[in-house]
Amino acid sequence: MRKTVASLLLIMLIMSCNERGRESKGEAASEPAGTVVTSIPVSDSLPTDAMLIAGDVVTEVIIKPDPEGDPWETEKVAGYRGADFVESIFERIYDGTLTVYDYHSGEVLSADDVRKIEEDFGGDRSLIGKLSFTEDWYYFPSSNSLHKIAKSVTFGYELYNNLGKVYAYRAAFRADLN
To answer: I need a labelling partner for 24 at 20 to 30 A (CA). Which of 119, 134, 135, 144 fits?
Structure first.
């Protein structure tokens, strides 16, 4: 019964996050997959044959999988070394060089707002267990390669059930990366 309730809560959380993403983007039509992009604003260094194959793709990565769970989940992030990345984002928020946004409303968050979010989790950044990236994917036929450009990252704090197991993640804020 608990697993069912936890699964339903997780599904509802994911669905609400997806709805937020659609609303904040205004459901703007993107270029069809396979379109040759002649002007790419993110980086002038992309080859001229770059084909946008996916825009605003959300890639979620559980960076702290349950060690008692699926071994593949642990293996997928065996190379993750993102503690310095997380610390750097927080440093830039607090020194005023990075603006972050409420994940759900899109409103700008102040450094004090972020401090309050951190306080909700006892200031323990190690509880950030999920990263959610919004990316554009480009394919380069001339080199048969794929280039992913991360446009933003959302940090997700772990939420625990009464058995001490992670049942969901709370979006802390979104940081734009370009």
So the answer is: 119
